[in-house]
Every structure is written in C-alpha cells, then in structure tokens.
From TrEMBL:
Highest taxon above the source species: Bacteria
Record's keyword terms, sorted: Membrane, Transmembrane, Transmembrane helix
Residue intervals of the DUF1232 domain: 32-68
Subcellular location per the Swiss-Prot or TrEMBL entry: Endomembrane system
One cellular component term from this protein's GO annotations in UniProt: endomembrane system
Transmembrane segments: 30-50, 56-77, 97-121
Pfam families assigned to the protein according to its UniProt record, in alphabetical order: DUF1232
UniProt xrefs under InterPro entries: DUF1232
Protein topology in the membrane: Multi-pass membrane protein
Name of the protein: DUF1232 domain-containing protein
Length: 126
C-alpha cells in the first residue's frame, strides 16, 4: 500500500513539474495555462474553501481539489506536448541536488535577516 502511495506521489510531483514546463510552452492553449495558474494559486494560497483548522474537512479540500485540478489541466494540454514535458521533468527529477548551493542560499538569507534586524534596531533605538 505505501509503495503505491509513494509511486502516486512521485508521479504527481513529476506531473506538477511537467505542468510548470508546459505552462511556458507557446503550443499550450491559454485556457490550460490559466487553469494551471489557478490550481497552483489555490494550492499555495492560505485562503481555502474550507479552513484548515476544521478537523479532517479542512485538509480534505486540498487533498481532493488540487489533484482534480491537476488532472483537469493535464487533460487540457495536448498529449504529445505533455509527453515531452513529462520526459523533461523526469530527467530533471533525476539530477543531483546541490547541497552546497542550498547552504549558500540559506547563508545569504540569514545574513540578510541579521542586516535587516540591525538596520531596524538602529532606527528604533535612535
């Protein structure tokens, strides 16, 4: 059971990346791009149809609506274009992850936060 769920999650992750790649393709219809943006916006938005603080039901809309939106977007994108972008997403998924680059980015954010705090403290204390 957990193997099937893991495979489904990997396929969903690949498809989301492929949708992102397809949304930048000029061959994809505008309405598919618009729906892809709406689905991504809903998935990332803190505002939900059912608030998350309601037990079980709060996350149910995210678990049902987002995958259904993704499936609908996949159906609106022509199959040959989607196949190209799935293959591209699969290749990019297998690329090694640079932990050094991630560490560098975290360091830049930390230095920026410290600098911002120092500047705010300098204005407040003065």
């Amino acid at each position: 059971m957990s193997g099937k769920l893991r495979d489904w999650a990997r396929a969903l992750k690949r498809d989301v990346h492929a949708i992102y790649l397809a949304s930048r393709d000029p061959r994809v219809p505008w309405y598919a791009k618009a729906l892809a943006v709406a689905v991504a916006g809903y998935a990332l938005s803190p505002i939900d149809l059912i608030p998350d603080f309601i037990p079980v039901l709060g996350y149910l809309d995210d678990v049902i609506l987002v995958p259904l939106g993704i499936v609908l977007v996949l159906r609106l994108i022509p199959p040959q274009i989607m196949a190209e972008h799935r293959a591209s997403a699969l290749v990019q998924q297998d690329r090694p992850v640079s932990r050094i680059a991630a560490f560098a980015i975290v360091c830049v954010w930390m230095v920026s936060a410290v600098l911002a705090g120092w500047l705010v403290y300098g204005h407040v204390a003065a």
